């Protein structure tokens, strides 16, 4: 059974439901099977670095 892992910023529960539903529909269509596991891994901005800077610091500079 395929496992799909999505890593990204935190989402509210409704967005997670939408994300899982959409990914499942596409993956099950392509694989031709019903059993798909989807894991959401959320990362806080203080735990993500881009180009040598923490994401939380980049977000502060945009304000």
UniProtKB/TrEMBL annotation:
Alphabetized InterPro entries for the sequence: 4-OT-like_dom, Tautomerase/MIF_sf
GO molecular function terms noted in the UniProt entry: isomerase activity
Annotated coiled-coil segments of the chain: none
Pfam family membership, one: Tautomerase
Record carries keyword DNA repair: no
Domain of life: Archaea
Keyword Isomerase recorded: yes
Keyword annotations of the record: Isomerase
Domain spans labelled 4-oxalocrotonate tautomerase-like: 2-56
Protein name: 4-oxalocrotonate tautomerase
């Amino acid at each position: 059974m395929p496992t799909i892992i999505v890593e990204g910023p935190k989402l509210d529960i409704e967005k997670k439901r939408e994300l899982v539903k959409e990914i499942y529909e596409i993956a099950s269509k392509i694989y031709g099977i019903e059993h798909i596991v989807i894991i959401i891994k959320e990362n806080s901005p203080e735990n993500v670095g881009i180009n040598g800077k923490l994401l939380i610091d980049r977000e502060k500079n945009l304000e």
